[in-house]
Amino acid sequence: MPGRCIIALTSKQRALLKALAHPLKPLWHIGKEGVTGTIMEGVREAFNTRELLKIKVLEAALLSAKEIGEDLSWRLEGVELVQVIGRTIVLYRRHPSKPEIQLPG
């Protein structure tokens, strides 16, 4: 069931995730069609193999990157919006059985 991540990230955890996300390439580009079913399914699938995702919002998008990031983190269970910088969104979800990223605290 979709919903907001129960555990909010601390500033130290957020800083670590930002640093880890820096070299990543965006997996998706969201344009004027917004967050489609294909995007939602792709993001869900990607979280099966990775914990940190980067998504680019194109200028043609009707919503801002912040609005899209908040929407994705709300609609996907356990996903936390790490940051929005410019038109780039970083999302995090801890892998339920094999977490690779060890968050401080």
Compute the number of helices: 3
The main sheet orders its strands as 1-2-4-3
CATH topology: Translation Initiation Factor IF3
> How would a textbook summarize the main sheet?
4 strands, mixed
What does the model show?
The chain is globular and about 40 Å long. The chain has one domain: 2-Layer Sandwich (Translation Initiation Factor IF3), CATH 3.30.110. It is built from three helices and four strands. It has a four-stranded mixed β-sheet with strand order 1-2-4-3, with helices on both faces. Mean pLDDT is about 90; it is low at about 1-5. A hairpin with a 2-residue loop joins strand 3 (about 80-85) and strand 4. With about 100 residues, it is an alpha+beta fold. It is about 30% helix and about 20% strand.
Task: From the structure above, extract its key features.
single chain; 105 residues; alpha+beta; four-stranded mixed sheet
